[in-house]
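Translate sequence into structure tokens.
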Amino acid sequence: MAPPSNLWVPKDVLRVDLSSLTCVGYVPSKGRRCHNHIAAASSQEADNLLFQMSTMNISDPRVDNALEPLARLLICKQGYQDQVAVVATRWRNQIQRHQIIAATRQEPASQLERDARLDQVAVGQDVVRDEHAAGVERATAPQSQQAAWIHARKLEGARQEADIARRDIEITRRDTTIALQNATIARRDADLARQETNETRQEIRSLRLETARGIKALTIQLAQLQVVVNVLTTPGRTSEVSGDQYLCLPRRSLQYNSPDPSHLPPGL
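Result follows.
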């Protein structure tokens, strides 16, 4: 379902993939994200909510209000619903990062606006100089009137330059704030990357342990089977096999060499 406008794409900003979605919660005991699948009904309801959010402006308060309901839908019902607020906060940070990046991309327009203002002030100063030169040539104008007029023009030029200086300071302050926010976001991204790396390492260790246990159990079973096969293939030793050893073998193994039925354990 495509949004009617290109205000923003919540699935991209929040990093939500409904095509192969698993729970967005975190399993503290295993140190990784939950791998349980989300129910189809919850996934459809979340898709509808994301579509509604895409029709709103990203700064709309309704977007922020929809984050926790969305988290409830995308967290499985097996004990991780207490992480709704944590997931919603993480999404708020991702939205804030998206807004900062969008604002940074619009900085060239701000630079052009500032240059236009400087050009306007330069033109005003040229007009002041021209009018001053013309005033000097007016022989009929009183000298005191000319001085007052020139002084007023100079004051106006000084005020315009002061306004430009204040605006430059505001722009510099805003640029510094954006740089600090970008640094904070970069630190958060690095922390998330480290966390995901640790989760992957723990999963690899768990797989190695499970594989080692399986190999050990299989080795023990093969050793027991070899003992029974050796006994069955040795003439005159069939009667030494216990009932438990016979039960470990498939039926076709019990018929190997056609042992005497009197040597078989009771119940076989």
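Note: The first strand starts at residue 26 and ends at 27.
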